[in-house]
């Protein structure tokens, strides 16, 4: 029986060409995620009812400054994370390639570390409690995750394992086998579903009044969804065990789940003191 296969959409990676200047969908996807995250951060810190005693940790105008810090942290950390954690050899052979972000290759875990450093620097500069800054950013990150995975799909990168499921795609450059569109799985789970979970916590459970819960839920939720999606990924440069069952993404996600659960438990314990 021949499996059903969805034709991979013929997407020109260049969204807009003006003379020698080209704007690619990959870059636009990351910009969209960052801008929506920035607007959402402003809304969170503008709503006093979400915070203890009705006092947001910082003024909405400072969200503009925070956005710049986070954007730099995401781009620098994400790129260096991809280079150091996943594919160091090609970049060591051609270091200039590190700066060609438009060719693809951004690692979430590296971006997360870069963002944490950026948030810490922002909080110190403005004398704001670091956990409060992290809670605001954590609630806004799913926008970037969603559009980042869409960018991966457009670039035909981080593809899934061969499969006969009816929604499989034949990705350009990955042979004739139909494969799981794992980028779309991650966009749905790490982006849309995780956002809805965090939105429920912030607006219905008022979890921003309990420091640690939202940030912990983000870490545990992302780590769990990433762990699940890793089983469907092509194992090429992610496998660290001979049979390919354990991947680098799994290895980096397990500590996130543990820290997330700890932060949630710690936050809830303090709330009842």
Could you walk me through the main structural features you see in this protein, from its secondary elements to its overall organization?
This protein has helices at residues 25-44, 62-85, 88-93, 108-126, 130-154, 182-203, 213-230, 248-271; strands at residues 5-6, 14-18, 21-24, 168-169. A hairpin with a 2-residue loop joins β2 (14-18) and β3 (21-24). It has one domain. It has 273 residues and is mainly α. It is globular, with a radius of gyration of 20 Å. The model has no long low-confidence stretch (mean pLDDT 84). 44% of the residues are buried. The strands form two sheets. Strands 1-4 form a two-stranded parallel sheet. A two-stranded antiparallel ribbon has the order 2-3. The chain contains eight helices and four strands; from the N terminus they run βββαααααβααα.
Write the layout of secondary structure elements.
Elements: E1 5-6, E2 14-18, E3 21-24, H1 25-44, H2 62-85, H3 88-93, H4 108-126, H5 130-154, E4 168-169, H6 182-203, H7 213-230, H8 248-271
Parallel strand pairs: 1-4
Antiparallel strand pairs: 2-3
Helix pairs in contact: 1-2, 1-5, 2-4, 4-5, 5-6, 5-7, 6-7, 7-8
Summarize the structure.
The chain has 273 residues and is mainly alpha-helical. It has helices spanning 25-44, 62-85, 88-93, 108-126, 130-154, 182-203, 213-230, 248-271, and strands spanning 5-6, 14-18, 21-24, 168-169.
